[in-house]
Amino acid sequence: MTQSFKLHSRAISRRSFLITAGGFGVAVAFAGLPGNASGAAVAPAVEGDYRPNAWVTIAADGIVSIMSPASEMGQGIMTTLPLLIAEEMDADWDRVRIVQAPSNAETYGNPGFYGIQLTGGSESTRGYYDLLRLIGAQTRKVILASAAGMLNVPAIELKTEPGRVVHARSGRSLGYGEIAAAGPLPDPLPQATGADLKPADQWRYIGRRDIPRVDVPAKVDGTAIYGIDVQLPGMLYGAVLRAPVQGERPEAIDDTAARTVPGVTHIVPLSYGVGIIGDTVEATLRAKDLLNVTWSTTSRVRNYASTRLLEHYRSVAGDLSQTGVEAFSEGDADALIANAATVIEVDYMSDLVCHATMEPMNATALVTGDTVEIWAPTQGPTGTQGFAAEVIGTTPDKVKVNVTLLGGGFGRKAEADFIVDAASLAKEVEGRPVKVIWSREDDIRHDKFRPLEAQHIQVGLDADGNIAGWRHRIVADSIFARTNAELFANAGGHDDVVTEGAHFNYAVPAHRIEYIRQDNGLDIGFWFAVGVGYTRFGIECVIDEIAAARGTDPLQLRLELLRDQPRARNVIETVARMAEWDRERDGRALGLAYSDAFGSHCAQIAEVSLNRETGVIRVHKVWCAVDPGVAIQPRHIEGMLIVGITNGTGHALFEQVNIVDGEVQEGNFDTYRVIRMSEAPEIEVSVVPTSGSPVGGMGQVGLPPVGPAIANAVARLTGGARLRHYPFLPDRVLAALNA
């Protein structure tokens, strides 16, 4: 069937298509031709190469280089996005190499993020999908126009095959390399519209399972370059001692002992800490431990106690007299709930969690006069340019960012604090690069945590047990108030990342969502599935509570509430068949949850058992059915779902940050508990795309349903013990059993 789509309204500028002087520069190629894992080979622009636009270069030997504009952090985006261009231009994928795009938002910015270069929010594929297909189609038209001139035939008589232009009437053909070697670029360049895109039944690459990820070979053989691997001539190393309480500053620094460490070259006072520069990583860490700093005591975060605040948040959520910002309203939910025959009224809560990426925060910076060059595992090249420029006192256009591979991101590496570290220290030793590497303890204690939050959900049921009204109150700090104050203000004080996922597609007569912001001084930030991770926890558990109240199968209740949502019904019915929903289990139970977040439909069923003496939950297996609309790379989608489900299981069972008097109590994996390999469930994923649907996001889709599926399974196993507080620590499970 023909794939339908809607083009983004953002116009594609001429600059997006044309190569400009300096716009190409030097980039890092992270994967080469099959069998040639090039690791981090420098790939400069070659004079004389055929460049139809800023995204594609064709060499005389037929090698096609395609820019990848997003950051590769394990989600396979370095394959997915260039594949869209390759599809539409009819490149031979076996002769394609991928090049990380330079920092240039005007050319490589994501339309889904207002044109900046930023990877996150499951927005890369959704944001670039139409643009990159159009760029591929335009590239194909340029190639055809050049070939028409070389063959002296009308372009309309030509067609393309992978890597070749064919003139069927004369039997002649030209390889893309031959065109690159001798064909002039047409002037003016032909443009592309939606009418030039291939219909789905002509796709060669989109939807295939056998296209491997281009970043994997180098990761397997060890030649892949992450930020932490960067090595440059004359490089120094840096470390930063931060205050134990966020927001404090150094008032007195005794660096006498630190300066005696061999290899230490500089001790640098900073507004937020103390920097150390040295010849080795070990020297900087040793000196850091020997610093004696007197810190200020004025930060509001000193009053931050996570356990106490969470109870306060819960009281605020349940106090309907404390109004917040109305995030969504449809119908008169308050009146319908007030007049309902039965009201279900519950609280759901989530603790602070950190990102705990395998690669800790790090960045390398080189300052030369008013120019800066950065090498970093960053999700946000545009933000990196801005912050580095501010530190040095220059302009963003004089900051070049080399994006390396990321050893995990999850939103943490969209921040710029580690960039500021590197730029600040490099400024002190102009002309020499400085690499700053955070310790694991720094990484956890100075993270930008997912917000502490409490939810109060009221659902009114009529006499027949049908939902009459749904009210959802979310109490949490704001991410946007810190990261994008203008957007936060323009939204009237609403943070749609913090409340994301609360707006569902279940058919209810009235639905109201409120956000009540708290501000206790602590920086909180973007996390894997951010708001959706906890809003869907509350929603999906309440759906099961409603089903129990009315004596209905929770699967059938969801199908009833999604009667006008065929894609949603399909993933639920599919996962039910996969898990054999109606089959009895001995000592185990199944729980179901569903999400439509990020434009994709995902249903999961978890099979769990419970040790009633210890309160320990064991998740044995998770089944998952997902409809991403367009399944660009089905096998890679399965991989991303497995990652999300595994992380989501650990998040639901273990992950927790505690803050007492402003100080983070956890510091490494001995105290910040993550899932172990032996605890990971068996996972089975089915990808069920819907032809004609828009492409959905996929990077974060796997996490939101798994926690509520586990909680719902425990409730079915125990006859109604409800787990309403992330994570499901054993003492909390035992308390629920004894409630």
From TrEMBL:
Residues of the Aldehyde oxidase/xanthine dehydrogenase a/b hammerhead domain: 221-299
Coiled-coil ranges per UniProt: none
Pfam families on file: MoCoBD_1 (PF02738), MoCoBD_2 (PF20256)
InterPro entries, per the entry: Ald_Oxase/Xan_DH_a/b (IPR000674), AldOxase/xan_DH_MoCoBD1 (IPR008274), AldOxase/xan_DH_MoCoBD2 (IPR046867), AldOxase/xan_DH_Mopterin-bd_sf (IPR037165), N-heterocyclic_Hydroxylase (IPR052516), OxRdtase_Mopterin-bd_su_IorB (IPR012368), TAT_signal (IPR006311)
Alphabetized SMART domains for the sequence: Ald_Xan_dh_C (SM01008)
PANTHER family, alphabetized: ALDEHYDE DEHYDROGENASE
Name of the protein in question: Molybdopterin-dependent oxidoreductase
Organism, scientific name: Neorhizobium petrolearium
